[in-house]
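Question (not urgent): is this output format expected?
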Amino acid sequence: MYKNNVISTRNERLTSGFGMRPNPTGAGSEQHNGADFVDAQNLQLTQDVGIIAIADGRVVEVINGSLVGWTVAIAHEGKILSRYQHMKNNSVRVKVGDAVKKGQTLGIMGTTGRSTGIHLHLGVKENSTAFNNGVWVDPLPYMRGEKSIGGNPVIPPPTPVAPPTPNAGLKAGDTVRLAENATYYGGQPIPAWVRNQNWIVRSVSGDRAIIDKNVAGTNAINSPVNIRFLIRV
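Got this back:
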């Protein structure tokens, strides 16, 4: 029995370990970058056996590949990636971006892709900084608890970007309307009849503008308006 399980019966039997092995579908040998498991009582032959997450993490891949079949990959803290292959057709229960908990069902054990029978291929990568690089390692120390896997990967917050200057480039001659919450530059409210018309900018100075009803200057609003309340039309 393993400390950290990867199938829902929590009764894994190892059928093929990590490292070089005879090619199961042809002559010669191949590197096996993972470990294969079935239920110790072969329950996968008579019922659906769930594939479960080895630890908390975030789903970074869901694919159906010609070799790996239906596959889910989870990123964990500590630059660890776990990958679950050969799931049953259309049994995947998660999507990219989902946060998953240890023991959560990801799909059903199957034999999709290059597979000779119903089983789970579990792959584990270390130093997987971009979740598509790193080094495949033996998963068994992680299952036995000899190595630990963290939870959700730490995703740095986006770099703050300064908002653009409101109405950058506003100039004399532009036609504008006033926003519902518009005020004069000093904070005094602007009457509704002013907000409900189009106006022409007479002049701009910094973040304030003088606006007119028409180019000739009739009905000029001589109290300046903060340009962030002006909407080009």
